[in-house]
Amino acid sequence: MRSAAHRRTDADPAAIRDLLESFLATCRDPVVVEPGEKPLALEQGQYSIEPSPGGCLLEVWGEDGSLVRRISAVSLQSADRVEVEARRFGGSSLCLAFYDRSRAASAAQRAAERRAFAKTFRRMLQRGFPDATLSPLTSAADLPRSLSPLYTRGKMLDQGRLWAVIAAPEHAASTSGLLTYGLIWLALLRERERRRPITGLRIFMPRGKEAQTAARLPWLTPELRFELWTFDRRGELQRAEPETGGNLQAQAARCFPPPRADQKTADRLAEILARTDVDATPLPEGVVSLRVRGIEFAQAARSVMTFGLDSRTTVDDSNFPELLRLAERLARFRRPAPDDPLNPLYTRYPERWLESQFRRDPQAVDPSLVPTPIYSHVAAVAGTERGVLDLLAHDVDGRLTVVELKTSEDIHLPLQGLDYWLRIRLLHKRGELTSQGYFEGLPVAPAPPRLLLVSPALEFHPTTETILSFLSEEIAVERVGLSGDWRRRLEASFRLRGAERP
Q1: pLDDT tier for residue 385 given thresholds of 50, 70 and 90
Q2: Does 169 fall in a domain?
């Protein structure tokens, strides 16, 4: 069944860009089409979407042809399609539609593909485990139990041991969610199977896509067994050992101290910061970020200041009043009780708004945290799908604390937090955080970092405790559920350790 479409009137160029990029990130085969023309593929590196005066500029180039249009508004949005109002340069207005060609197939076709892979997967298992007994395999969605139709699952009795099995097809757009759904499936089978205990989980995925999962597996509970298998196009299985398959790529950029501004810049900074809604956040790059509840509108270095939301202009005496007006405009629209709650300046970047609240009062979330310094995006997590905001702080005992902020329900939050924790742990173990200038002059404890998951209390996914129950006890993970009024002030509704339930 097609998802409901929503009429929209978004006209802010940055909001249009953000919406389109978010939609395209979910597509396996994205295209754009205008009436009477053939679809143009939107391949990585062959298109751009940039905010500009008068609209959002779309440029497409490639073997199928080229296109340049100025988008003025989003007219319709659904899970499958986004339609926008656009204009040719020097020409008439028209409608552009963005959609995923891989989703354009009918539900029956998609179901047929899933059944075909289930048969292929069964043949793989029969060849790879000839003495095993297999249950029927399925990829049917089970929404009450949060089981996705993206992956095929079942169970296997092998040499007297019962295993949960789950697989991602070769054409899967992403395998980053496979372990999440595998753990949910494992938990369900452990609950169902009363006669024979479940030994563990066997995970199967296309060869070459296993690194992220392999890095996670050593940090799951040792009470169960977890095996990772890969397959090639011929369906040949090969065991991937977590110890060798999950090499992490982690690097911390150099952290520079905040700049010492010259007198002119210092005077301007003082005038800006006299406005109570403006925060000054030192960045590792050695500049100061000026923000209103998470939206950056200016940066200051030693003798240079720039401002603007989507394109930057150097500040001078003639445009400094414009910078102040921009800060006032942000404060007017981006406040806890706005006149227009649908305005893009209010709805944009909710995680960054939560970050600004956290930076102002981290001890409202965890009384043991030291208010400063707090760093963001210390270690890049490449090749993963993330919708969280990563912070790194430390507590009164000097122990590092990885803080993951999320304002909406996300089934993958526990394992996304694990991904970032792994990289911070590695950097800390190698001594790279302190050698690169982080926490300069402060005692940092040698203990592994803590992991803090922070979200509005009602926005933790119902499976969060299930996923956390499979994490190793070596990971000190805590959850903090915030009251619904977090935009006004932070107040913890609950604090829980590990897989504890409210």
Answers
A1: very low
A2: yes
